[in-house]
Design brief:
Elements lengths: L1 H18 L4 E8 L4 E7 L15 E2 L4 H14 L23 H5 L17 H10 L14 H15 L3 H10 L8 E2 L5 H4 L8 E5 L4 E4 L5 H5 L9 E3 L1 H10 L3 H9 L10 E5 L6 E10 L5 E5 L4 E7 L12 H4 L2 H8 L4
Antiparallel strand pairs: 1-2, 1-11, 3-7, 4-7, 5-6, 8-9, 9-10, 10-11
Helix pairs in contact: 1-12, 2-5, 2-6, 5-6
Length: 341
């Protein structure tokens, strides 16, 4: 079954790489037991210096939110944490005392998507905004996808564990799952920091940040936070990413996802929806999450399989293939469709 699903999704990937300004793509599928298959697609003749390899490491961008959510899932499973706690109980300077961890994890906190929009954003301004941004809605009333919320979750995780976020993530997620080639590119993860630049897929050219970003986090807010944040900053190759996705298919984890569903969101994940914005129907067994750099993860609870798409659609810059934001949904759709055949 895995090979059949891979073939279906890879066919879409091959078409996108052939017809769109996309350098390449890695596609992988995994089942609950951890069995995995993958394939690489790349315009090798056009970009020989950036050939797509099985072990190429990608900037996961907002897929990092799933790693943050998984850390909290592990705390709950270890009976060390209650998601009904308020963020302010861990972060005293946070100015919204009613917001709970469960609401932030499900994007139902009312927190805005990001910090203030300015060309002069610095770390001090960012930290001020995390604590003081006005709410878009009363907590628990509406879904608003929020980088702010997950940045706060990263800060809170560090406080809960009494260690830097990188070490907390390693202890709760990376080491238990054997994700030896996954991590933040910071001094707190020295073995990962010393990997050669060539091991990483390039993202985009940003002159004000020194040129081509390769092995450097693309998200500027994560960069201001030192490269490690709850919303972005994790890098991973395909094999590790598939192993991570398989961990979400375990029965005790699925039970937590179902118990914490809020409309079309749960802990880190977005449920697949049909029928437009006015009267959408939510498919409770199909979940996915996307990342700005071109990454996708999905899990299909109907047939206990997971999907990972790794690509660098922002290369050489984010304007080159902005239409990816629409085209990308063909890939999880093909993955989910296999369960209905």
């Amino acid at each position: 079954m895995l090979q059949t699903i891979l073939k279906d999704v890879a066919a879409i990937g091959e078409q996108l790489v052939a017809e769109k300004p996309l350098v390449g793509m890695s596609v992988g599928v995994v089942n609950q037991k951890g069995q995995q298959v993958q394939t690489q697609i790349g315009k090798i003749d056009q970009y020989p210096e950036h050939k797509v390899e099985a072990d190429t490491i990608y900037d996961l961008a907002s897929l990092t939110k799933l790693y943050t959510a998984k850390a909290y899932v592990q705390l709950v499973l270890d009976q060390q944490f209650d998601l009904s706690r308020t963020l302010k109980s861990v972060l005293p300077t946070f100015n919204h005392p009613e917001i709970t961890f469960q609401q932030v994890l499900t994007h139902s906190s009312g927190l805005p998507s990001s910090v203030r929009k300015t060309d002069h954003l610095d770390r001090k301004m960012l930290l001020e905004d995390l604590n003081n941004r006005p709410l878009l809605a009363e907590p628990g009333q509406e879904i608003h996808y929020s980088d702010v919320g997950y940045m706060l979750l990263g800060q809170a995780l560090s406080e809960i564990m009494g260690m830097p976020l990188e070490q907390a993530m390693a202890q709760l997620v990376l080491t238990p799952l054997g994700l030896a080639h996954t991590g933040y590119r910071t001094a707190q993860m020295p073995n990962y920091q010393t990997l050669p630049t060539e091991a990483f897929a390039p993202t985009e050219y940003v002159p004000e940040r020194g040129g081509l970003l390769q092995g450097t986090v693309d998200d500027y807010k994560a960069a201001l936070l030192g490269g490690a944040a709850g919303h972005a900053g994790i890098f991973s190759p395909m094999a590790d990413a598939l192993r991570f996705v398989a961990s979400w298919l375990q029965p005790e984890v699925v039970q937590l996802l179902q118990a914490n569903r809020v409309d079309f969101r749960t802990l880190g994940w977005h449920y697949w929806r049909f029928g437009g914005e006015d009267h959408p129907s939510v498919e409770k067994d199909w979940l996915y999450q996307t990342g700005f750099t071109g990454t996708i993860m999905a899990i299909n609870l109907k047939n206990q399989t997971g999907l990972v798409i790794l690509t660098n659609r922002v290369y050489p810059n984010r304007q080159t293939y902005d239409w990816w934001r629409v085209d990308r949904y063909q890939l999880p759709q093909a993955f989910f469709a296999r369960a209905t055949r």
